[in-house]
From TrEMBL:
GO terms for cellular component: mitochondrial matrix. This is phenylalanine--tRNA ligase. Its EC number is 6.1.1.20. Belongs to the class-II aminoacyl-tRNA synthetase family. SUPFAM superfamilies: Anticodon-binding domain of PheRS (SSF54991), Class II aaRS and biotin synthetases (SSF55681). InterPro entries: aa-tRNA-synth_II (IPR006195), aa-tRNA-synth_II/BPL/LPL (IPR045864), Fdx_antiC-bd (IPR005121), Fdx_antiC-bd_sf (IPR036690), Phe-tRNA-synth_IIc_mito (IPR004530), Phenylalanyl-tRNA_Synthase (IPR002319). It is found in: Mitochondrion matrix. Keywords: Aminoacyl-tRNA synthetase, ATP-binding, Ligase, Mitochondrion, Nucleotide-binding, Protein biosynthesis, Transit peptide. It catalyses: tRNA(Phe) + L-phenylalanine + ATP = L-phenylalanyl-tRNA(Phe) + AMP + diphosphate + H(+). PANTHER family: PHENYLALANINE--TRNA LIGASE, MITOCHONDRIAL, PHENYLALANYL-TRNA SYNTHETASE. Residues 69-358 form the Aminoacyl-transfer RNA synthetases class-II family profile domain. Pfam families: FDX-ACB (PF03147), tRNA-synt_2d (PF01409).
Length: 440
């Protein structure tokens, strides 16, 4: 208990200062991250707790299940694609997580009004800089450097709900494979990547009105790339889950690919999405340099795969340093069938928090993700889940009220109700100070 209270007291002032700024527009001069100072502004919403996850690199930590899955994926691409006896794909697994909004959005043709840009979805350092929300943020810079086949692997940061399958930091593998005409059609020089009527000097004349292809591409080129893409990803899925895994393709939409698909597998009597993919928009390729290629891209989450492969019930376990967890993945064959065995089960403690909102908020304008971040910053890793339990508008006073249920559970020991109550009180205090609410 003492350890948790010391930790709580140590971060509470920093947390409150951050949230007062983000919700009440108070002046905060700068944000310090990894020894570098960033100017703060009205977009700044990154929290001390989130900053503490930088450079953990779980995907590179020996005996972590994420690292095992990462290596299995890399091995598949190394063995499946070679050039003159060497792997055709290059791997970048230590790219810096701080990116510009141009890298994260504009370079990928994500519109200014797209919901993925919202402050409620991303961790902004300031209006122009954020913690990457996807590894695809590095796609254009790698294309610009002259690469054509590459994997990008690392941690990404998104504001989200709190439960056993969601965490504000997770890990992705994104990939791009591009081909020139002579590579795509080595034996058929009469076939073309681009439609004869397409003006390569003006890539923005490309359109995506046809669900089958981009207007710049020929149907033959698109279909051949689609076949390659789906064949390679089915092969990857079978390498991970076995030859008999059931799968299906679902049409999808992503701003940076067209056409686009999601791959689902039949897992535990239900369909589960494992990745998204598609043909890279030609505008992205031209803006990054290569104007004579066609490319496909895909992205997948390591946590989702690892939890399914090894039956890991709680995403927080990926961050555990407990030897009882890590030794289950120690010095194992990469392709071994592993089923996670719980070290022990500890009981949950659930406390509700109800409060009246000040007049500046309504039950519809209060952003739950702001509240989730505040709870996580103070409660840390003992927060298992936060749920919006009830919304209420008083019929006479017209005051708006919210009730959240907070589930506390430690992964390595039993929490006492006394220490949970203490952390709960600190969260109440933080909510009052940050938002001006009145605890019910």
């Amino acid at each position: 208990m003492t350890r948790i209270l010391i930790k709580t007291n140590r971060i509470i002032s920093a947390v409150l200062s951050k949230y007062k700024f983000s919700t009440a527009a108070k002046s905060v001069a700068s944000v310090q991250i990894k020894g570098k100072e960033f100017v703060a502004d009205d977009y700044t919403n990154v929290t001390p707790k989130i900053i503490s996850y930088l450079d953990k690199n779980l995907h590179l930590q020996k005996n972590n299940p994420l690292s095992i899955v990462r290596q299995r994926i890399v091995n598949y691409f190394y063995s499946s694609f070679t050039h003159r006896g060497h792997p055709a794909f290059s791997v970048y697994d230590n790219l810096p997580p701080i990116v510009t909004t141009k890298q994260n959005f504009e370079d990928l043709l994500i519109p200014a009004d797209h919901p993925s840009r919202a402050k409620s979805d991303c961790y902004y350092i300031n209006r122009d800089t954020l913690l990457r929300a996807h590894m695809t943020a590095h796609q254009s810079e790698l294309l610009r450097s002259g690469l054509d086949n590459f994997l990008m692997i690392g941690d990404v940061y998104r504001r989200d709900e709190i439960d056993s399958t969601h965490f504000p930091v997770f890990h992705q593998v994104d990939a791009v494979r591009s081909q020139r005409q002579e590579e795509l059609f080595p034996d058929k020089p009469e076939l073309q990547i681009f439609e004869p009527t397409f003006d390569k000097t003006n890539p923005h004349t490309n359109h995506i009105n046809d669900p089958m292809k981009q207007s710049c591409h020929t149907l033959e080129a698109t279909k051949l790339m689609e076949t390659q893409l789906k064949t390679h990803l089915i092969g990857l899925t079978q390498a991970l889950f076995g030859e008999d895994i059931k799968y299906r393709w679902v049409d999808a939409y992503f701003p940076f690919t067209h056409p686009s698909w999601e791959l689902e597998i039949f897992y535990e009597n239900d369909w589960m999405e494992v990745l998204g993919c598609g043909i890279v928009r030609n505008e992205i390729l031209v803006n990054a340099g290569p104007s004579n290629t066609i490319a496909y891209a895909f992205g997948l989450g390591l946590e989702r795969l690892a939890m399914a492969l090894y039956k890991i019930p709680d995403i927080r376990l990926m961050w555990s340093t407990d030897s009882g967890f890590l030794t289950q993945f120690e010095n194992v064959d990469l392709n071994a069938s592993i089923t996670y065995k719980p070290v022990s089960s500890y009981p949950q403690c659930t406390n509700d928090m109800s409060f009246w909102l000040p007049p500046t908020y309504t039950i519809d304008t209060f952003i739950s993700n702001d509240f989730y971040d505040l709870v996580r910053d103070i409660g840390g890793d003992i927060i298992e889940q936060v749920k919006l339990k009830d919304k209420f508008v008083h019929p006479k006073s017209k005051k708006h009220s919210l009730c959240y249920s907070i589930v506390y559970r430690h992964l390595e020991r039993t929490l006492t109700q006394t220490e949970v109550n203490q952390v709960h009180k600190e969260i109440e205090k933080a909510v009052v100070d940050a938002y001006g609410v009145v605890i019910r």
